[in-house]
Amino acid sequence: MEDHANVQAIFIANFILNIFFALVAIILNSITIHAIRRTYALTKPQRTLLLSLSISDLSVGLAATPVFAVLLAIVLEARLSGNAVASYALKISSFIADLSLYASMLGVLALSVDRFLAVHVHLRYEEIVTHKRVLAGVIIIWVASTVLSVSNLWISIAIRPHLHFNAAFILPCVVTTAILHYKIHSIVHRHRNAINGQLEIAQDQHQTLANMERKKLSVKGTFYIYLTCLVLYLPRACICAALIKYHENTVLLILYVFSLTFWFLSSCLNPLIYCWKLRHIRHTAVEILRKTFLKATTDTEEGAP
């Protein structure tokens, strides 16, 4: 009975965390999406890719996290009564978590490719990276994420194939993104040294270096998003690996539930990273909030007797 009470307290705490994360994700991502749409200093391809990531995070707040919170209550009831609905609830929550994971990883990879092309072929960037191509890429990302999530459920409900399937997908994304960021840093560093090493620097060379530095700042934002996704996913991967051997361990099962909640936290952190590292988005978001508060204050004063 005491164990049941402890499990109940843990699941209630997790339920509250998920509701809180859902509300924060909805508010922050709604503001960020509006700010990205109004930030014309960004290129159209970059805006499209950032909007895709923000919509993914917003969907986590609107659907994934609340549904997972409800599923926690179902799992708790099933655990106490011995009902088999717990396994189905866990499958649904895993599907939702995988969908957000795949969309985020592919979205960050696409952003990294975009920034790599911006510094590698900067003179032909607009010719190669068109809005239609990026839009097609975003559609492919969402279709692929959905297919992968469904396939993950179809392969097996066991933990071992689930972990192997995710590793086969995530590892190439992680390695490729890391290589792209290393190459971007090398290209920007080489251009800076080449220009600074000259005795007389032409105005257009100054402009080229300034453009490189601006692109590097946007790359840093992409890198932090990538790092956040990786760090927040690692606990889930490690716990899954431990569950392969100790699949009936109650503590590990509870930690696995918390690892899903931990992953959903990324939907709250990503919009903060956009505003922190991308100055134009930050200024637009602040302006939106300022106008919103001013309008609310004005409406309150006009409605007062």
Describe this structure in words.
- The chain has helices at 2-37, 44-81, 85-120, 125-128, 131-155, 159-196, 203-245, 250-264, 266-277, 279-303.
- The chain has 305 residues and is mainly alpha-helical.
- α1 (2-37) packs across α10 (279-303), α2 (44-81) packs parallel to α5 (131-155) and α6 (159-196) runs antiparallel to α7.
- The longest helix has 43 residues, at 203-245.
- It is globular.
What order do the helices and strands come in, and which of them pair?
Blueprint: H1 2-37, H2 44-81, H3 85-120, H4 125-128, H5 131-155, H6 159-196, H7 203-245, H8 250-264, H9 266-277, H10 279-303
Helix pairs in contact: 1-2, 1-8, 1-9, 1-10, 2-3, 2-5, 2-9, 3-5, 3-6, 3-7, 6-7, 7-8, 7-9, 9-10
Highlighted features:
single chain, mainly alpha, 305 residues, 0% strand
Helicity range of the residues?
over 70%
Provide the gyration radius in Å.
Answer: 22 Å
Secondary-structure element series: HHHHHHHHHH
Main β-sheet, in a few words?
A: none
Count of DSSP H/I helices: 10
Total strands: the figure is: 0
Q: Output the structural class.
A: mainly alpha
Distance between the termini: 58 Å
Shape: globular
Task: Give the low-confidence spans.
Answer: 199-204
User: If you average the pLDDT, what whole number results?
Assistant: 77
Strand content: under 5%
